[in-house]
Amino acid sequence: MDWRLDKKRPICPQIGEKICVFIASGEFNAGDRLMSVRDVALQAGVTPNTVQKSFEQLEQQGVIYSKRGSGWFVSENTGIAKEVLQSLIRSKTIHYLNDMQSLGLDKKEIIEIIKEFRYG
Amino acid sequence: MGELFRCDSLCKDYGSVKALNQLSLSVASGKIIGLLGPNGAGKTTLIKIINGLLQPSYGTVLIDGKQPGVDTKKIVSYLPDVNYLNNWMTVEQIVFMFADFYEDFRTDLAFEMISRLGIDRKQRLKSLSKGNKEKVSLILVMSRKAKLYVLDEPIAGVDPATRDYIISTIINNYNPEASVLISTHLISDIESILDEVIFIKNGGIVLHDTVDHIREEHNMSVDDLFREVFKW
């Protein structure tokens, strides 16, 4: 799991986004038990308070729910997590397109570059 | 979460030099707090006053409602910025010494953390590498069940793997009744594990805020903001 965070943005919403991405991409399914607050804190290298706050916000949004004494679980409805993933994809795409446009490329040229591009 | 400690109008003069100048501060329990400032800002002076090693020239400090002294030493676990352990002692001896000194010391936990590092408890401290010595010092401090942990420059001069170990040890031992105060000037390494940061400059506080609020308001990391505030 990729826990790399953007150093310029607040941490709490980023943890929420990561959890949504893990749910939307199927690493966690509806009804699955999530990692504990402490495990997320350790893996992401962030304070447990921030993870706790982030989980509580996800609970309010209906993405996850807590069971007293047994931890956090993924809600049956994974629609919200998928929406979050979609909006992340959208904003990252816009960001990329803006960058490429500022380098003087139009949409057609950008698509060509992506098609031709090979990793490594 | 209640108030764990507070300073009011704290001053410390060394002759004509004001190491602390009217510093007031309130810290709640359950927080990991970064005390950030350039060299000479007054970080270590403040920490020594909290630990009763220095007397303020003016002003008060209250830890859990008490002035620094015997009672507060029972609830404050302090990691100084210099190695203060006896080099001729073995790891085991130093653990038992801590167990004798502090009622809240968890011997089992200390030995468990030490063995997980692969350190032989019969080894003398002087034969440990610098990194392992730093880790043992931190283990001793974090093995106490204190209300306030005060770590003075715990990540200065250690390699990245040791730094990560220190960070996970702090997170692992986190509990909502205690707070951890970490002084450092290497902010980017630890800002994500901090709930709050305190910027201190010329003996006074220039900023006391949460990490996420700083990032939200300034659109930059705490490290970037630090560089801006403390620009030459």
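qc> The domain at 3-229 of chain B is CATH 3.40.50.300 (Rossmann fold).
qc> done
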